[in-house]
Specification:
By secondary structure, the protein is α/β, with parallel strands linked by helices. It has helices at residues 12-23, 53-61, 75-80, 82-102, 122-142, 164-175, 193-202, 223-233, 274-291, 297-304, and strands spanning 3-7, 27-32, 44-47, 65-68, 107-113, 146-151, 154-155, 177-181, 187-189, 191-192, 211-215, 220-222, 239-243. It has a domain at 3-155 and 190-218: Rossmann fold (3-Layer(aba) Sandwich). α2 runs parallel beside α4 (82-102). Bound molecules: nicotinamide-adenine-dinucleotide (NAD).
């Protein structure tokens, strides 16, 4: 069995993945800003920020595999805070990747999103796309093996406040009313977080080295059907209101978008002669090197010859 660090392991998805890893006999270390409410007696907790490079180094040095779940995971929060999102989601991930290379980690398993394929998701999507590219580059440059997990819509116990199903259940319990942004015709493939956590651990198999894996549900539901289901379970006492005007940042039927990005080819009307242009560059370099007092071999060869 292996030593595994779960970064962001106090959160919704990370805590369930930590449970599955521990139940399978792995030695689990959880790294998070906050202490996990779900910490098992045989799990070890490290409290810290992924922006603290020294602590990330010390934590990664101990283990064989790293799961990385720590991020600004709320699309709305990321949309309102692009710089903060880039720091936590991108720079934080780079700290982790660097340490994985330094301590020759067997594999990094990264939590991405189906939104990387989408026109939706704003800065959340930009940060996830960027991390995916960096992870690929770290493999190309340093042979750090990876598995990228692209999760769909999760629901289940321990969900955070911005989780859709958790949020509507809270509204129903507190106010006997659910206000849904959107017309309810949107479809989602919900997956239970425990099923997602089991799949997330199954990918430790060698079959998933350097692979992208989609972890989504296989039962498509319209949002209005789901809300009706919740209403029925709560004795039809819940008022459901749809607010399609303020629906923003999410998708209707599919997260995927066809986005060919063909650049315009701009043909300049001006024309610098190539030879003349290169001569300008040689001249500029020559002047700069001379000013810096560097010994220019070219001149010496010319003199001696
Ligand atoms: N929940 C979903 O539906 C879903 C879908 C697709 C992708 N994901 C991705 O999965 C990951 C986990 O999502 P989640 O829903 O469990 O979110 P979450 O907010 O419940 O968990 C994230 C955890 O990371 C920790 N964290 C955040 N910033 C940190 C930092 N700077 N240093 C250390 N710890 C930090 C938080 O304290 C939290 O415990 C995220 O990367 C998210 O983008 C989630």
């Amino acid at each position: 069995m292996s030593k595994v660090l779960v970064i962001g392991g106090s959160g919704f998805l990370g805590s369930h993945v930590s449970d599955v890893l521990t139940n399978k006999g792995h030695e689990v270390y959880i790294f998070d800003l906050v202490k996990s409410k779900y910490l098992l007696p045989n799990q070890k907790m490290i409290i810290g920020d992924i922006l603290n490079k020294d602590l990330i180094d010390q934590s990664i040095e101990k283990v064989d595999y790293v799961y990385h779940f720590a991020a600004i995971a709320d699309i709305k929060e990321a949309k309102d805070n692009p710089i903060k999102s880039a720091r936590f989601n991108i720079i934080g991930t780079l700290n982790i990747l660097d340490a994985c290379v330094k301590y020759k980690i067997k594999r990094i398993i990264f939590s991405s999103s189906i939104y990387v394929y989408s026109n939706h998701g704003s800065f959340y999507r930009s940060t996830k796309q960027s991390c995916e590219l960096f992870i690929e580059n770290y493999f190309e440059e340093y042979k750090l093996e990876y598995t990228i997990l692209r999760y769909g819509s999760l629901y289940g116990t321990r969900a955070n406040n911005f989780n859709f199903i958790n949020n509507v259940i809270k509204q129903a319990l507190l106010n006997k009313e659910i206000i849904r942004k959107g017309d309810g015709q949107e479809t989602r493939d919900y997956i239970n977080v425990i099923d997602a956590a089991i799949s997330s651990v199954d990918v430790l198999s060698e079959d998933y080295i350097n692979k992208y894996v989609m972890i989504t549900g296989n039962q498509t539901r319209k949002v209005n059907e789901l809300l009706e289901m919740i209403n029925e379970m709560m004795n039809n006492e819940i008022k459901i209101t749809y607010d399609s005007k303020n629906y923003d940042g999410h998708y209707q039927l599919t997260p995927y978008s066809f986005r060919p990005k063909v650049a315009l080819k701009m043909i300049s009307k001006n024309h610098h002669d190539l030879g003349q242009g290169i001569l300008d560059c040689i001249y500029e370099n020559y002047q700069t090197l001379k000013k810096e007092g560097q010994s220019i071999l070219y001149n010496k060869i010319k003199k001696n010859g």
